[in-house]
Amino acid sequence: MKYYSIFFLFFLTSLQAQTLDYNIKNGFLANGYDLVSYFTAQKPVKGSSQYTYNYNGIPLQFSSQENLRLFLKNPTAYLPQYGGYCAYAIAVKKIKMKIDPETYEIRAGKLYLFYNAWFSNTLNDWLAGDVLQYQRQADANWKQLKFIQ
Fold first, then answer.
1. For the residues of the chain, what is the DSSP string, one character each?
2. pTM of the model
3. HSE (CB half, 13 Å, CA atoms) of 148?
4. Is 107:131 a contact under the CB 8 Å cutoff?
5. How many Cβ atoms are within 10 Å of 107's Cβ, its own excluded?
6. Contacts by 81-84 with C-beta closer than 8 Å and gap 24+?
7. Where are the domains of the chain?
8. CB–CB of 113/104 below 8 Å?
9. pLDDT tens across 43-92, in order?
10. What burial class does residue 74 get, using C-beta atoms within 10 Å of its C-beta: 0-12 exposed, 13-18 middle, 19+ buried?
11. What number of other Cβ atoms are within 10 A of residue 93's Cβ?
């Protein structure tokens, strides 16, 4: 009995740690937008409850069966950087900040999401600065932040 309890506790802890590094506070990664659509459409498309998928404990929505199929072929190619939190906030403020799923950049085949509300568009700030330096700083900060709520 003791070993089952230890295993169960380990399982719950690893599952919680795995989902802590993704921005799913609104129920789905990228606020329910179709991750594949960022790469294939002219603009991001809201996912549908008809095409939901749970990837390693991370709830996702897609706009079509075809986009879900594309995701399943190579999931990591479509996942946003820094767990779907605002890339600028991770880099500059070292905090996890919510995003506007329609404010994004694809750079070198990677998806970066940004906050955009109340006269603050962090994508504009990101692009106005040294993007490569921001990426390096965000990468370093993310290693420390990703498992913190």
1. -HHHHHHHHHHHHHHHHHHHTS--TTSSGGGGB-TTHHHHSSS--B-EEEEEEEETTEEEEESSHHHHHHHHH-HHHHSPGGGGSBHHIIIII-S----EEEEEEEETTEEEEE-EETTEEHHHHHHHS-HHHHHHHHHHHHHHHTT--
2. 0.86
3. 10
4. yes
5. 14
6. 81/110, 81/111, 81/112, 81/113, 81/138, 81/142, 82/112, 82/138, 82/142, 82/146, 83/21, 83/22, 83/23, 83/142, 83/146, 84/22, 84/23, 84/24, 84/29, 84/30, 84/113
7. 2-145
8. yes
9. 999 999 999 999 999 999 999 999 999 999 999 999 999 999 999 999 99
10. exposed
11. 12
Q: What is the identity of the amino acid at 116?
A: N
State both tokens at 90.
């991770």
What are the structure tokens assigned to 145, written together? 């932040």
